[in-house]
């Protein structure tokens, strides 16, 4: 939400532009708008994936709270433990999904990721060779 508010506020800022650079300014405005839309899309994808991956855990917590007053036998405890394990893992997966969404949505992130991977790869190779 803060990203969207910031983008809307940046559109309201007024800059004095000489007539000579008006066409260049129009091109830069389009580029800024495209970049803003990419950020909005990225934020929405990240928020949606976070919400979807946390639904199972929220349902489990509600179920656990609702049944906390009941006495449970060993089979029910084992089943609850299994359901807990299954519902908590998507939360851990969120960090990898965030990486995937950044990789899919941002060309700049992809380039930085590739260059960082290459640098790390060459450093590791140098260490293992020497």
TrEMBL record:
<keyword id="KW-1133">Transmembrane helix</keyword>
<feature type="transmembrane region" description="Helical">
    <location>
        <begin position="39"/>
        <end position="62"/>
    </location>
</feature>
<protein>
    <recommendedName>
        <fullName>G protein-coupled receptor</fullName>
    </recommendedName>
</protein>
<keyword id="KW-0472">Membrane</keyword>
<feature type="transmembrane region" description="Helical">
    <location>
        <begin position="82"/>
        <end position="105"/>
    </location>
</feature>
<keyword id="KW-0812">Transmembrane</keyword>
